[in-house]
Specification:
Rossmann fold, 6-stranded mixed beta sheet, 4-stranded antiparallel beta sheet, binds adenosine-5'-triphosphate
Length: 257
């Protein structure tokens, strides 16, 4: 069942200094089904974040439409949780207060919001760190707090913009395993921006490969690999080779010539 529909979306940004317009996205159409894990993959500047921001309602298409759950997106809403590249936690609040931030902002009683936050603190495996402050946790742990905060609102879809980009390789791989477990447990739909081919293949049920600016969808690939995925396995490498050929068509032609 389709949850997100991106229909013929283009986005131009005005560049007043150069008196020109930047075409960031060109006629993008894409459907994301409920419970899917879609990775938006492409080179730097191809418009991945711009597309994600439109699903979030932070930005609007120049033409075309984005809808979530059959509703046209025109502004941010609690049906869409967002996890940023940096965890964006409030350093003066404890972990549980950060996770429960949106509830307390809405005036929910402290005890009730603490109880609600606990389920998600447990889910991201931070039990025991409830009263710590962000500065006392590692980068990966803080990113888990950001994920718990997004999950708490029980959104239809979780939007993630390169959330593990700042982590070391080993922690990133550990976070991949955790995120897949959380995605399954919470039965959520995830749209995840990355420029890592391995990362997209480790996580996604689908990978939308985008071309360099102006961003277009080169191919939507369904990833039919068992989990946990083996990044050294032959099938994984077949997918990787295919994605590389989509991302570097000019270079491939150059080599062939
Ligand atoms: N607010 C803005 N004003 C002007 N140009 C913008 C704006 N936001 C994005 N762009 C341009 O749109 C294009 C796409 O940017 P975007 O950040 O979406 O790419 P990206 O694929 O997410 O890149 P990265 O992987 O480096 O984060 C870029 O050329 C960028 O300069």
């Amino acid at each position: 069942m389709t949850l997100i529909t991106i229909d013929r979306v283009s986005r131009f940004f005005n560049d007043p200094k150069r008196k020109s317009a930047v075409k960031a996205l060109d006629d993008i159409s894409l459907k994301v089904g409920r419970n899917e894990f879609l990775c938006l993959l492409g080179p730097s500047g191809c418009g991945k974040s711009t597309l994600l921001n439109m699903i979030a309602g932070f930005d609007k298409p120049t033409s075309g439409t984005v809808s979530v759950g059959g509703q046209l997106v025109s502004a941010p809403g609690s049906d869409r949780g967002f996890v940023f590249q940096q965890p964006t936690l409030m350093p003066w609040l404890t972990i549980w207060e950060n996770v429960a931030f949106h509830l307390t902002m809405r005036g929910m009683d402290k005890r009730e919001s603490r109880d609600k936050a606990q389920r998600f603190i447990d889910m991201v495996r931070l039990t025991g760190f409830e009263n710590h402050f962000p500065s006392e946790l590692s980068g990966g742990m803080n990113q888990r707090v950001g994920i718990a905060r997004a999950l708490l609102m029980n959104p239809e879809v979780i939007l993630m913009d390169e959330p593990f980009g700042a982590l070391d390789e080993q922690t990133r791989m550990e976070m991949h395993g955790e995120l897949v477990r959380i995605w399954r447990e919470s039965q959520s739909t995830i749209v995840f921006v990355t420029h890592g081919i391995d990362e997209s293949l480790a996580l996604g049920t689908h990978v939308a490969v985008m071309s360099a600016r102006p961003g277009r969808i080169r191919e939507l690939i369904e990833v039919d690999l068992p989990r946990p995925r083996d990044p050294t396995g032959p099938q994984f490498n077949d997918y990787k080779r295919h994605i590389l050929s989509l991302l570097r068509p000019e270079e491939t032609l150059g080599v062939a010539a």
